[in-house]
């Protein structure tokens, strides 16, 4: 904030961030510093809280573990013999107790629980870095994708960052759906005669 002759035109103080971010940046009288704060968080009579500046390393290992956790379910699902499971279901008159299917269900619950715990620690880390109002970790209770998408978008708006976690999650989800549909279609086509007899009877 200098004139054409290089003279300072404004005294030191908080001013709107020249990057257009919804925060204020500290002008020291001669140059912009990396000190930021969010005026919406200011409380009367207190010093506004500092927030992380552009370029803060917010894409940490916790987030990437959350993004990659669904691969555990994908690999387990790919190992399940869907044809044998459906064949046993058709030939049984009682409930099916299949060890592989039980392990798959357990892994699904473990991934869900781990996602919630990791989201909590990721949210806490973002707060400690100074990111104002990071996306709340409790959204992970609904679905891990909600936390990954919300967290990535909110942090990107606050301090910048990549959309790679969203694209990675989307790619894993598409792959998971493809594997599930392929295995189910293969199993059904192989068991089509047995299914026809079961329906007829």
How would you portray this structure in words?
Helix 3 crosses helix 6 (164-190). The chain has two domains: 13-51, no CATH class; 61-200, no CATH class. It has a four-stranded antiparallel beta sheet with strand order 1-2-3-4, with no helix packed on it. 17% of the residues are buried. The mean pLDDT is 81. It starts with 12 loop residues before the first strand and ends with a helix. The protein is elongated and about 90 Å long. It has helices at 61-68, 70-79, 82-91, 99-129, 144-159, 164-190, 192-200, and strands at residues 13-16, 24-27, 32-37, 50-51. It is α+β, with helices and mostly antiparallel strands and 201 residues long.
Strands, total number: 4
Number of separate helices: 7
Distance between the termini: 84 Å
> Could you report the average pLDDT, rounded to the nearest whole number?
81
Q: Please estimate the helix content.
A: 55-70%
Query: Based on CA inertia axes, which overall geometry fits?
Result: elongated
Instruction: Characterize the main sheet.
Output: 4 strands, antiparallel
Give the helix/strand class. Answer: alpha+beta
Protein name: DUF2510 domain-containing protein
InterPro entries: DUF2510 (IPR018929)
Pfam families: DUF2510
Organism: Cryobacterium psychrophilum
């Amino acid at each position: 904030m200098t004139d054409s002759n290089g003279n300072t035109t404004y005294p030191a103080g908080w001013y709107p961030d020249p990057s257009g971010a919804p925060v204020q940046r500290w002008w020291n009288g001669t140059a912009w510093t990396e000190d930021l704060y969010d005026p919406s968080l200011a409380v009367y009579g207190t010093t506004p809280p500092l927030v992380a500046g552009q370029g803060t390393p917010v894409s940490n290992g916790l987030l990437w573990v959350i993004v990659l956790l669904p691969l555990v379910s994908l690999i387990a699902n790919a190992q399940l013999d869907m044809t044998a499971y459906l064949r046993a279901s058709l030939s049984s008159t009682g409930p099916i107790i299949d060890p592989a299917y039980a392990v798959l269900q357990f892994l699904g619950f473990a991934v869900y629980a781990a996602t919630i715990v990791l989201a909590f620690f990721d949210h806490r880390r973002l707060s400690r870095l100074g990111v104002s109002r990071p996306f709340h970790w409790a959204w992970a209770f609904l679905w891990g994708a909600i936390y990954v998408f919300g967290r990535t978008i909110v942090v990107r708006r606050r301090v910048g960052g990549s959309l790679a976690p969203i694209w990675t999650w989307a790619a894993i989800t598409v792959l998971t759906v493809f594997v599930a549909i392929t295995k189910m279609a293969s199993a059904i086509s192989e068991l089509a005669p047995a299914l026809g007899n079961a329906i007829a009877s």
